[in-house]
Amino acid sequence: MEQLRAELSHLLGEKLSRIECVNEKADSALWSLYDSQGIPMPLMARSFTTPGVAQQLAWKTSMLARSGTVRMPVIYGVLTHEEHPGPDVLLLERLRGVPVEAP
């Protein structure tokens, strides 16, 4: 978790005070991101243990957002680990009205 927080802080160019797991499954986890003041950021991170799943989900979500009638979260990017081991991470919009803050 600390490695993920450090990588996301570096990628976003902003120090994250903490990240909290709000949903965990066997192959993925959804993380709530908090800025240096502890305020929830307008994006979330979803990490995947299987390589390639983040890119596939980003593509599917983007296609549904363009052609579907249901509001889909904006995909901000995908972080992959090709040179060293680590989870692939999908950065996506935190939808308003959907409570996901950790206590």
SSE map:
Elements: H1 2-12, E1 18-24, E2 28-34, E3 40-48, H2 53-67, E4 75-79, E5 88-93
Antiparallel strand pairs: 1-2, 2-3, 3-5, 4-5
Main features:
103 residues, alpha+beta, Phosphorylase Kinase, domain 1, 5-stranded antiparallel β-sheet, globular, Phosphotransferase
Tell me what the structure shows.
With 103 residues, this protein is of the alpha+beta class. It has a single domain, classed as Phosphorylase Kinase, domain 1, CATH 3.30.200. The chain contains 2 helices and 5 strands; from the N terminus they run αβββαββ. The protein has helices spanning 2-12, 53-67, and strands at residues 18-24, 28-34, 40-48, 75-79, 88-93. Strands 1-2-3-5-4 form a 5-stranded antiparallel β-sheet, covered by helices on one side. The radius of gyration is 13 Å and the shape is globular. This is Phosphotransferase. It comes from Salmonella enterica subsp. enterica serovar Inverness str. R8-3668.
Strand content: 25-35%
CATH topology: Phosphorylase Kinase, domain 1
- The tally of domains stands at 1
For the termini, the CA-CA separation is 17 Å
> What is the N-to-C succession of helices and strands?
HEEEHEE
CATH homologous superfamily designation: Phosphorylase Kinase, domain 1
CATH architecture: 2-Layer Sandwich
State the share of residues found in helices, binned by percent.
25-40%
Low-confidence stretches: none
Largest sheet: 5 strands, antiparallel
Shape call: globular
Average per-residue pLDDT, rounded, comes to 89
Provide the structure class.
alpha+beta
Strand order of the largest sheet: 1-2-3-5-4
Report the strand count: 5
What is the class in the CATH system? Alpha Beta
Whole-angstrom Rg: 13 Å
Total DSSP helices: 2
What is the quaternary state of this protein?
single chain
